[in-house]
Amino acid sequence: MTATDATSAPSAPAAAPNAPADPVAALTADPHAGFAALRESGPVHRVTGPDGLPVWLVTRYADVRQVLADPAFALDKRHAAPGNYRGFALPPALDANLLNMDPPDHTRIRRLVARAFTPRRIADLRGPIERLADSLLDAIAPLGRADLITAYAAPLPITVICDLLGVPADARHDFRAWTDALIAPDPERPQDARAAVGAMLAFFTQLITRKREQPGDDLLSALIAVRDEQDRLGEDELTSLAFLILFAGYENTVHLIGNAVLALLDHPEQLATLRADPSLIAGAVEEFARFDGPAPLAIRRFAREDVTVGGVTVPAGETVLAALASANRDPRQFAEPDRLDLRRADNQHLALGHGIHYCLGAPLARMETEIALSALLRRFPALALDQEAGTLRHRPSLRARGLLALPVRY
């Protein structure tokens, strides 16, 4: 990803001396420092994406919030100008999901999902999630050390999502391998991503067939049966929705838990604060999401018409990326934004979105993270990193901010 100067993109702001010459390299190596340089050099940047096509990167809180809520920015790829977007191609049975839809289809499907994805259904999961967290910690307690991502942060949300959807134990696969292949594809092995897509499509097709024959008290059975007057989920919409719930519900929560644990271990005074007052956990999860959230960028948007954002005109049909990680550390919105503060008040972060596309699974992700962290700190009072903090490796992706491993001792 490279910055474009004002002469080749007249509507772009002039480049500032402190803007990184190669934004994608800077953002991958150190996203918060990279975003800070971009944010302070200008609110909107014309850059060239990894696929060689131009995008507009929006960096400041007020402007990111505008992009997320303004209907002038569409998710439907049909609004992309010809030759302006080259995203990863999913088959229709996985592509017809909420991340690619605008009203009225988005409104219809979200309303149908909300009737099945109820607060009561989520609240009923608290006890099972608490027992699951304890059982995972029971398994690693005698070892004295573990990779917390593999042993705890990953299996907890995938088990919860599978239980919620009603995925039978004998049908559960290595979802982490599939999601890894899509979130951070190996440029040397493009066949891995294609194979993951094919495997997921076959899995969900078979699972839906199985649920139609043997419905249960689970979310997928409810989605299959759900009706809203004359509206209903089409077959591709149903399959895509099941895919999205599993994919997003698992991926984001893994990273939120892992990033939160690392933030605590990197800030012992905040860890001591939370241990001394466990009632702070709900606000602490909001601060973890702001400080180092699971998604540096929101899903791409397309300008329906010429739109002004941050004083810059984005032409109709062009692609816009809203930098959530940058907005969440904007000093115009947050006092001392680079400081982790578990008592931070009025924390209106954008880590889980804003507007009609706000994350549908946010209540579940919050609850899982609260339970996971509370159980971990209660069980392991001597929890510490088992590796130099500077040597920990994050996923090499701008789509997701997560650790590849988190070795700890306890």
Automatic annotation (TrEMBL):
Residues 1-26 are annotated as: Disordered. SUPFAM superfamilies: Cytochrome P450. Signal peptide: none annotated. Gene3D superfamilies: Cytochrome P450. Pfam families: p450. PANTHER family: CYTOCHROME P450 YJIB-RELATED, P450, PUTATIVE (EUROFUNG)-RELATED. This is Cytochrome P450.
